[in-house]
Amino acid sequence: MSLTKKILIALVLGVIVGIGLTFVPENIFSNMDTYVLNPVGKIFINLIMMVVVPIVFVSITLGTAGLGEPAKLGKIGIQTISFFLVTTALAICIGLGLAYLIKPGAEGVFDVSSADFEAKEAPPVVETIINIIPNNPVSSMASGEMLQIIAFAIFIGLALAFLGEKTKGIYRLFEQANELLMFLVNLIMKAAPYGAFALIASAIGGAGLDAIGSMGAYMGVVILGLAVHGLIVYSSAIRFLGKGNPLKFFKGFFPAMSVAFSTSSSNAALPVSMKAAQENLGVSKGISSFVQPLGATINMDGTAIMQAVATVFIAQVYAISLGFSDIIMVILTATLASIGTAGVPGVGLIMLHHTI
């Protein structure tokens, strides 16, 4: 059985078991979650996150060095970032449109009287741009600052491209490091079905039927937005820009999609997505190594849809009317706020707080 089928079966079983756990006594679920589900899920996430920073640094360096000419790198970089910003803006528009059409918060199904959440303020866009250049690359790697890691890796890659034969040994070392990391990813992915099952079952079992029911309309709009964005925006891009078959793409990319869905983390899905792109879809290592780590950092369309729906949802719950200028500001702010935001679970709350 292929890994894709195993992960799909694990996700379905995780949903079923998670719903079943909502009917068991709290102490039984707590023990199962504490000693079984939560450890398995966290170990899987930690295994993936363990290789994320090395993969980003090594792959971006190799990708930049492989592209060679600065002009070629600049052209691909501009096209890539432009595509990312456009798809993020479209994702926000889809989320806003569906939220206004379906009105998930208009019926007052969600009780906000006891809501209490305090999020950190997201940094200004100008500050994010300034902080792209790290003053201590080693510290940036230790703290997982992806934009800074990418910037440093690009500089190293450019230096390797310019120096050529003088640094052939170092370039070969990076190639060997990449092979080593890909081997580890293949090894880690053998645990993917178990990790996906544990994460989904724990999340659903911990939320409970009441919470799932009260947030059903909101969740439904977000999931619908994800489906529309994937089936229309991404499928159109694959067909007309990539000249490819969308069905073949989604089939080959499903392992990465399932990891992203179960972990809610673009960083956690990065090693799997690079493996799927290179091995299942035939994307060149140079392009994949440069584009995908960049996308995991600045192209979080799922989060963009979530915060667009959440913005309208909250406005409807509190009976606040958003004008045209407010909608435009939400689109611009959310698009720019996505640049440099960490690709980890829960970061959407910080982005949403900044957008509102």
From TrEMBL:
Top-rank taxon: Bacteria
Primary location group: membrane
Sequence intervals crossing the membrane: 7-24, 44-68, 80-102, 146-163, 183-205, 217-241, 304-321, 327-352
Record bears the keyword Membrane: yes
Membrane topology listed for this record: Multi-pass membrane protein
Keywords, alphabetical: Cell membrane, Membrane, Transmembrane, Transmembrane helix, Transport
Keyword check for Flavoprotein: no
Location within or outside the cell: Cell membrane
Entry-linked PANTHER family: PROTON/GLUTAMATE-ASPARTATE SYMPORTER, PROTON_GLUTAMATE-ASPARTATE SYMPORTER
Annotated protein name in UniProt: Dicarboxylate/amino acid:cation symporter
Organism per entry: Tigheibacillus jepli
